[in-house]
Each structure stands twice: as structure tokens, then as C-alpha cells.
Amino acid sequence: MQRRLVLILTAEGVPQAQICRILAISQKTARKHYRRELDIGAAKLEAALIGQLLRIAGGQGAVAFKAIRFTLQARFGWSQYVPPPRP
């Protein structure tokens, strides 16, 4: 039951420190006993956020442009300040 709770809370973006307070354990203990749940929950949260970002980037207007630019910077290391490569 606690493993499922850790997974759900992590996937919803609850910080590890708060999860540990809920379970009344230290962060070291949580990482030792719930490593898999913490990792899977974090991966689920990341996937959900990326899905939302890509949905927004598929739109039009200023918000879509900002989402596209953020995605390029965060996922592909793109920078508007670096000159383009020479042919």
C-alpha cells in the first residue's frame, strides 16, 4: 500500500521531502526502500509534462512559439545566441 502511495505522490509532483513527512521516514530511507517507485513516478510525471508541452507547441500564437523554443532549448540544446553552423 505504501509503495503505491509513493508512486502516485511522486507521479503527481509531490516533493520527496513531503512524501517522507507523510510516511514519517527520512529521505535516505525513502530512497533505499522506494527507489523504484520514486523513479517510475518521476518518469510518469516527466512524460505527462512533455506531452502537455508538445500539445501546447502544436498550437498557434505566442504561447505555442514559447513552448517550441523552450522544447528546443531543453531537449536539444538549441540557443538563439549561438551562430548557425557554416555550410
Description:
By secondary structure, the protein is an all-alpha fold. The protein contains five helices and no strands. The protein has helices at residues 2-11, 16-23, 27-33, 35-57, 62-76. The radius of gyration is 18 Å and the shape is elongated.
Can you lay out the helices and strands and say which pair or pack?
Blueprint: H1 2-11, H2 16-23, H3 27-33, H4 35-57, H5 62-76
Helix pairs in contact: 1-4, 4-5
Radius of gyration: 18 Å
Q: Name the helix and strand elements from N-terminus to C-terminus, one letter apiece.
A: HHHHH
Put simply, the count of helices is: 5
Averaged pLDDT, please?
89
Q: Which term fits the overall shape? A: elongated
* Main sheet: strands, sense, barrel: none
- How many structural domains are formed by the residues? 1
SS-derived structural category: mainly alpha
Low-confidence stretches: none
Could you tell me the strand content as a percent range?
under 5%
Distance between the termini: 58 Å
DSSP helix fraction: over 70%
Q: What's the total number of strands? A: 0
Task: Tag the structure with descriptive keywords.
elongated, mainly alpha, 87 residues, 5 helices
Question: Summarize this, please?
Answer:
The chain is an all-alpha fold. The protein has helices at residues 2-11, 16-23, 27-33, 35-57, 62-76. The protein has one domain (2-76).
